[in-house]
């Protein structure tokens, strides 16, 4: 029965007058076509507007830095009405959580000595993670080693280079040692000039706003690499009790928590007290203007004393490694050379001690 239809051709495939197979012709409804064209036009307009805004928007004052204010950041006349800081009340503290930072700690200590700070020098370290050799090298420039208990991250997601950083909260227990004010400095830093005026601050906590080379740029959140604080064991207990229940980004560990904890109360210090290398990457003009006032330089973007992924560099290879980092991070070559010069001076001043330390084996 179906054979009679074997030559049947559907109407839609019949050829038209020009010999082209016929297809049913459908046209877009006028209303639908109007909406489609309208949507395309609006999309093009918005894209052009956002591109124009991005290219012509007024930069932030720091991105648009101009050397207008040349006055010093500290008023020496006003400072003179305060009593000089008592060395028994104040401490500068840094941390050593891995052997790889031992040479950096020693160098930081030497630059602190050159700056002639009146404060005590304290080194927090984790006994089960630091070798005798590394601790010996780190303390040649005068740090007093203080073993602390590791405070483990309260949850997953912490950046692996920050896994021990919650231990920094022990800073607030230093009232038990009689200290009334503390300046914490990360080991990957150099002291440029004296900063003892900070010990006369009446506030309980102060830090420098953070900065990134990316679109995030300058932020109101502070960097925890340099912090002024008033030790308070009761406050320490409160922080430790809340680090696991507070809501904050896990990746930046204690820095994110401290920004949450002190966010509304923290005094924002001038960039001169934590001259993050990211400033140079973001706004070279601002970096150049900071040179005369710079108290502390923070090597966030390039660490001349590390190789690979935070691996330790043998002391006799530090110079070669720093030169390698300088080639790779050429934007910060001048600063890396400055760190290397500080290390050379540290090695010269404490050579006999460093050599004895380097010979130690656990």
UniProtKB/TrEMBL annotation:
Supply the alphabetized keyword list. Answer: Membrane, Transferase, Transmembrane, Transmembrane helix
Provide the GO MF annotations for this entry.
glycosyltransferase activity
A Pfam family it matches: Glyco_transf_8
Keyword Transmembrane helix included in the entry's annotation: yes
Q: Which segments cross the bilayer? A: 34-55
**UniProt protein name:** Nucleotide-diphospho-sugar transferase
Q: Which organism is it from?
A: Lentinus tigrinus ALCF2SS1-6
């Amino acid at each position: 029965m179906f054979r009679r239809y074997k030559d049947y051709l559907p109407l839609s495939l019949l050829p038209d007058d020009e010999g082209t197979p016929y297809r049913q012709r459908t046209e877009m409804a006028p209303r639908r076509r109007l909406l489609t064209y309208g949507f395309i036009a609006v999309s093009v307009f918005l894209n052009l507007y956002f591109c124009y805004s991005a290219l012509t928007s007024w930069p932030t004052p720091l991105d648009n830095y101009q050397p207008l204010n040349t006055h010093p950041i500290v008023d020496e006349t006003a400072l003179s009405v305060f009593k000089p800081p008592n060395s028994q009340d104040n401490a500068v503290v840094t941390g050593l959580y891995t052997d790889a930072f031992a040479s950096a700690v020693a160098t930081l200590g030497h630059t602190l000595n050159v700056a002639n700070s009146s404060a005590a020098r304290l080194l927090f370290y984790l006994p089960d993670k630091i070798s005798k050799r590394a601790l010996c090298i780190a303390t040649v420039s005068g740090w007093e080693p203080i073993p602390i208990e590791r405070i483990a991250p309260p949850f997953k997601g912490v950046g692996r280079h920050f896994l021990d950083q919650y231990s920094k909260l022990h800073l607030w227990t230093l009232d038990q040692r009689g200290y009334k004010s503390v300046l914490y400095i990360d080991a990957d830093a150099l002291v440029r000039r004296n900063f003892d005026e900070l010990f006369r601050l009446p506030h309980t906590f102060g830090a420098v706003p953070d900065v990134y080379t990316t679109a995030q740029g300058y932020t109101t959140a502070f960097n925890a690499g340099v912090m002024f604080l008033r030790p308070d064991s009761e406050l320490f207990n409160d922080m430790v009790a809340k680090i696991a229940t507070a809501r904050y980004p896990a990746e930046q560990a204690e820095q994110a928590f401290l920004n949450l904890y002190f966010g509304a109360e923290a005094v924002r210090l001038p960039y001169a007290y934590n001259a993050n290398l990211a400033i140079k990457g973001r706004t070279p003009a601002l970096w150049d203007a900071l040179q005369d006032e710079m108290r502390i330089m923070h090597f966030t973007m390039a660490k001349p004393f590390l190789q690979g992924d935070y691996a330790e560099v043998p002391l006799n290879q530090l110079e070669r490694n720093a030169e390698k980092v300088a080639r790779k991070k050429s934007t910060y070559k001048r600063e890396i050379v400055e760190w290397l010069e500080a290390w050379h001076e540290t090695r010269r001043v404490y050579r006999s001690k460093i050599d004895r330390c380097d010979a130690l084996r656990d």
